[in-house]
Amino acid sequence: MAVAIATPAHAQVSNASLRGTVKAEGGVSQVTAINVNTGLTRSVAVGENGSYNIASLPVGTYRLELTTPGGVRRTDEFTLSVGQSAVLDFDFSQPDIASDDGAIIVTGTRLRSMEGGEVGTNISQRQIEVLPQNNRNFLAFADLAPGVQFVTAGNDQSRLQGGAQNSSTVNVFIDGVGQKDFVLKNGISGQDSTQGNPFPQLAVGEYRVISSNYKAEFDQVSSVAITAVTRSGTNEFHGEAFIDYTDQGLRDRRPNELTGTKIKTKDFQFGGALGGPIIKDMLHFFVTYEGKRQENPRDIRPGFNLPLDFFPAEYRGVFGPTNATFNEDLYFGKLSFQPTSSDLIELSGRHRRESGEFLSSGINARETISAQKVIEYRGTARWEHTADNWINDLKLTYEDVRWAPTPVVFGNGSLFAYAAPNESNPAVIDRADILRIGGGANYQDKGQKGWGIQNDFTWTGFEGHTIKFGVKSKWVELNTLQLNNFNPLYTYNVAFNPNGGTFNDEIPYRLQFGAQTGTGNPIVSSDNWQFGIYLQDDWEVTDRLTLNLGVRWDYERTPSYLDFVHPADAVNAVSPANYPNLVNADYDINDFISTGSERKAFKGAWQPRIGFSYELDDDARFVLFGGFGRSYDRNQFDFLQQEISVGSFATRTFNFNTGDPFNICAPGPTCVTWDPIYLTEAGRQQLLAQAGPGGGRELRFITNKLKVPYSDQFSLGLRARVTPLFEAEVGYSHVESKDGFAYLLGNRRPDGSFFPPAPAAPSSPFGFAPPGFGSIIIGTNGLETRADTGYLKLVKNYTAASPWSLAATYTYTEAEENRNFGEVFSLDFPSIEDYNFARSAGVRKHRFVAAGSVDLPIGVTLSGKFTLASPPYLKAFVNTGGDNPSRTVISNEAKGNGDRWGLRQFDLAIIKYIPFRFISDESRLRLRLDIINLFNDRNFVDYNNNPADNTRTPSSPTIYREISGIGVGGNPPRTVKVSAGFSF
Q1: What pLDDT was estimated at residue 966?
Q2: What is the pLDDT of residue 4?
Q3: 899 has which bridge partners?
Q4: Would you state the torsion angle of the CA atoms of residues 18, 19, 22, 27, taken in this order, to the nearest 10 degrees?
Q5: Angle, vertex CA 393, rays to CA 390 and CA 397, nearest 5
Q6: Of 369, 426, 377, 370, which Cα lies nearest the Cα of 398?
Q7: Any idea of the CA torsion for 968, 970, 971, 977, to the nearest 10 degrees?
Q8: CA 375 to CA 146: how far, in whole Å?
């Protein structure tokens, strides 16, 4: 039987590993691991000291065969999980152990994952299958890991977030291949502004969430790393099909429907999977498809809490409930070929296609929508070859991802704004956008396409060491087409009409429209080269102490940034002769001007990563762990490309002198007297001609010494195995992220200052742009976050003998940032250093997530997930008084739902399995009922964030920190989802 088990962490990114020692008279010559479902075989020789090491095993169920002088000894079956590192020691020297039947008892429950210095958790296939969820996004359970949030916004779009960093710092590795989005936000390709899923859930076997202190194998990530494995075919045919459905009749009323009719809602999801052998023990296949068809409710409501009768009759009809459609199709296929016991060849590919309508609740009328389009192709070819003491894993990858929202209506847009004296303080002007109609704003087409090769070599020939060396090279073309304000937008102050009337929709005070500048091409393309190299040594120093020592280096070359030459008119516009305001400025514009030779790719991305685990007792029931590491991410291309695109297709802004006292501009090329001809294309061309060479366009400059964002991570904790099935963990982590990208306002007043002289209130110098041009916007590094997290995690694993499970995590987080969460444009201070650190608006102080399931005797599985969190923090600017008035940033906790919590949601699922044994012993019908938000909690997300508002008025009935909106926000009302499935 297995006498001792310990589990140092030295697994592959997605594979598992197994090592140990064997004692027997005459010795043991060989240990062989056999996957009982696919026949995959891995054999290694046993060293002179009795040690063996199988460093890379696909996730699955195995048995061991040990060749001894007395014959082959076989173990019972056990399961290895994603990223798991297990050690099994055998002792055949005792007479009662060396029995005649050769049986060795090894149970799967004895195997456990010890993560070294990593902070994270494993999500099993059972959890993915039985826990309640609304959208079949397999990442929805990642928030069971400390410091991780799975955030669903009010528009049903979801994202993953780690600590105080934004979603662009996340990376997901599927079968060891990163799914990074190099162009857009949200970290994972295709996940920007979509309610779709990144991968078919039926294809996911299980995954591991690491919130900090990952090993050197992980690249292009500085917060959460997800490593997932896909399912493969086996020696038996298995398949399944499912349908999920809900509509407005299966949900509770939303807050805006309490006195009216429910809005039509539909969520129909369906799909199937099939896998099996082509050649038994040699060639297997797996294919799956999942589809989603949705109609999501939306609310068009006036801004500034205005009543409908404020608007003329012709506009009232645009307000009220409506819906937005969304369609998604996901395909995945995989071939697994084992020509020899030393080789595994896998070919996999996936395709994703989305369509629908971009429409969020708010002031935008339905006609302003944009059509959604996401198209994604990815493919991987993998060859793994094993020998006695080394393994080589070679991967070839291809990706082609496109995200292209397009306006549905092409024509003039109108934005109605409200500007009037404050009811309680007439000296203060209240301004708010209250309705937008007409054509949508932007035309975009962005994506990435290219090939990659990566190779990981693992050496186990040195006793006590598992050494891994890897290299990756990628050639990827990044593309963007961004035509901002493709449809002209006219802004009206509805409270001021020089022609009379109570609602001005005749004379706008501002016009914004996009136009080519004649410089460059708005289609920005960059043939990037990415290169990464790492070395990792997992060293068993003693029987109790394991060190994980790693270092990696990454490099990326972005030619569109490095080789860019600023056009002459932009350089002349900011020269001392034409714009002396910068002569005494607090920055040197020459540090941002490129002639094509000043910029160098960043070469400083060295990343040491160190972890340890120390077993405090002989049975390894208590393990002390910790780690420190640095991890570099990358600069999002969508920010870098703006230097080119804004210079070639720019938003032109023209203000009109209409006599409106709240919208006054000084006459000039971009401030003219209103003429109705400006509503036409001919009039807009006339404005461009009058404005001269600059045309009122913005000027973008990015620093010539651009760095790469990174985070430093530290963790320390204690893991305890209370029983073979029950584990507890308590820990602390500290994460600092630095050098995040930000855009600043480069305008300065004539004397070079940013703020006006005292005693004037602080204001940004937007009105002091270079003659004929819009504002100067400069890009640089400097965004920072800090997060200190203490957490407690409890896990009870599911087994057939003990058919219930529980995973619960409580986190307490103190997080702060020097800029409002998720905001890149920082136009309120002269530099990033001037922003004071304040509580992060993206991280709640307290968060508790628990999920569990139980098999009941009547063939029913009951499962639930409970999330509870404190209210969010609100950040706002306040002006300081005194001799030197300035601004400062304050952050205060919002008043949540009854001041008890900011977010509470309990989801429940009931599954009934009905055997269909006349087809096969494993065939069964599945009937399922999911109740999302069982207690119908209203988790509001709109708050009054005006620190000066301490008075209730009819137009503003709330005060600072109180709930101000009726939207449900990130969670739906109580919703019942019915499902049916069949598997065999």
Answers
A1: 56
A2: 35
A3: none
A4: 100
A5: 170
A6: 377
A7: 120
A8: 33
Name the 3-class secondary structure at 169. Answer: helix
| 125 vs 202: CA distance, rounded Å | 10
* Nearest in space to 21 (alpha carbons), one of 42, 43, 48, 41: 48
Amino acid at 5: I
Q: Beta 649-657 vs 671-673: how paired, if at all?
A: parallel
Taking residue 421's Cβ as centre, other Cβ atoms within 10 Å add up to: 13
**Among 552, 730, 611, 620, which Cα is nearest to 11's?**
611
Rounded distance between C-alpha atoms, residue 361 and residue 967, angstroms: 8
Contact 321, 340 (CB under 8 A): no
Residue 809 to residue 223: CA distance in whole angstroms: 18
Centre a 10 Å sphere on the Cβ of residue 767 and count the other Cβ atoms it contains: 11
Cα 757 from Cα 760, distance rounded (Å): 6
Rg of the chain over CA atoms, in angstroms?
Answer: 30
Please say whether the beta carbons of 368 and 439 come within 8 A: yes
Q: What is the pLDDT of residue 112?
A: 47
Among candidate residues 271, 321, 296, 300, the one with its CA nearest the CA of residue 195: 296
> Could you give the 3-state DSSP secondary structure of residue 201?
helix
Q: Which two tokens stand for residue 154?
A: 């009010």
pLDDT value of residue 765: 95
Instruction: Give 10-residue mean pLDDT values along the chain (984 residues).
Output: 37 70 73 85 80 82 79 76 74 52 44 68 93 92 93 81 94 95 91 89 93 93 94 93 95 80 91 96 96 91 88 92 92 96 95 92 91 95 92 96 93 91 70 92 93 95 92 97 93 86 90 88 94 96 93 98 94 95 96 96 97 91 95 95 90 88 83 93 92 80 97 96 91 97 97 91 91 92 96 93 95 95 93 94 95 94 96 88 79 76 92 85 92 89 85 81 66 91 93
User: Of 276, 291, 266, which is closest to residue 238 (Cα–Cα)?
Assistant: 276
Chain centre distance of CA 968: 22
Q: Residue 2 has what pLDDT?
A: 38
Q: Report helix, strand or coil for 963.
A: strand
Q: How far apart are CA 327 and CA 267, in angstroms?
A: 10
Residue 215, both tokens: 């090993």
CA 926 to chain centre: 32
The span from the CA of 348 to the CA of 168, in Å, is 26
Identify each DSSP E strand in 359-494 by its residue range. Answer: 370-386, 390-403, 406-407, 413-421, 429-438, 443-459, 465-483, 489-493
* Distance, CA of 817 to CA of 735 (rounded, Å): 12
Backbone angle region of 338, left / alpha / beta, with phi > 0 → left and psi within -120 to 50 → alpha = beta
Tokens representing 302 are 């006036």
User: How far, in Å, CA of 219 to CA of 516, rounded?
Assistant: 38
d(CA 976, CA 968): 17
Cα–Cα distance measured from residue 199 to residue 288, given in angstroms and rounded to the nearest whole number: 11
What is the spatial distance between Cα 685 and Cα 674, in angstroms, rounded to a whole number?
15
| Residue 167 DSSP label | G
Backbone angles phi and psi of 541, in degrees to 5:
-65, -45
CB 233 within 8 A of CB 336: yes
For residue 97, what pLDDT is reported?
44
Structure token pair of residue 137: 């996004």
d(CA 356, CA 374): 10
| Res 351: pLDDT | 97
Residue with tokens 């129909």: 268
CA–CA separation, 268 vs 61, rounded Å? 34
Amino acid at 214: Y
- Residue (of 959, 954, 921, 589) closest to 752 by Cα position: 589
String of b and e for 453-480 (b: at least 16 CB within 10 Å)? ebebebbbeeebebbbebebebebebbb
Quick one: tokens of 759?
């005693």
